Amino acid sequence: xxxxxxTKCGLTLExxxxxxxxxxxxxxxxxxxxxxxxxxxxDMALKKLNINPENFFLEFISNNKQ
Length: 66
Prior knowledge:
Layout: H1 2-8, H2 13-20, H3 24-31, H4 39-48, H5 53-63
Helix pairs in contact: 2-3
């Protein structure tokens, strides 16, 4: 879901990593489920992407309905 939001914003891995103060490998791991993201980190990432958390979770829920 993070990758979808990042690409929707037109950002590369490197650009998002820079905004988050981390490296592109860490962002790649987050996007690919290799490591879990804390809610605080998710909140910070959404703010850096200018995404409303409510809209993020509503989209997440609608994309994951069975």
